[in-house]
């Protein structure tokens, strides 16, 4: 794409997990937020955030994953670089929280759309990494247990056992 200002607010909506990722056509960065907490600033990042597109009575709301927050254009300002932030889902009645989409093409921003197989492969890789990390921790635990046993054998116990009778009662 050319470095034309008309592409500045052109965004590609791409399937991503159970929702969508939103990629800027001009800068190849994604719409991103750290969480859905009210007041969290929506920015751009090289790492995508999963969004849901929800139809409202007059447009669409862009929801953070499956959580409570939706994107709000601060005071509905039309100026370039106006801040976007997260607001509660039940506040979609305000126009600054409703979005309109225009279909320009089937272009997905130079990326191959993610398939279910891609998602399954990614999850399998994550599971394998988690299993490897658990195995390392298991080995560390075993080593620490051995070290504790060695220390217990090498250091005689200085605590005396209480004088108890056959019932376990203190005989003193």
UniProtKB/TrEMBL annotation:
Gene3D superfamilies: 2.80.10.50. Residues 153-172 are annotated as: Disordered. This is Ricin B lectin domain-containing protein. It comes from Rhizoctonia solani.
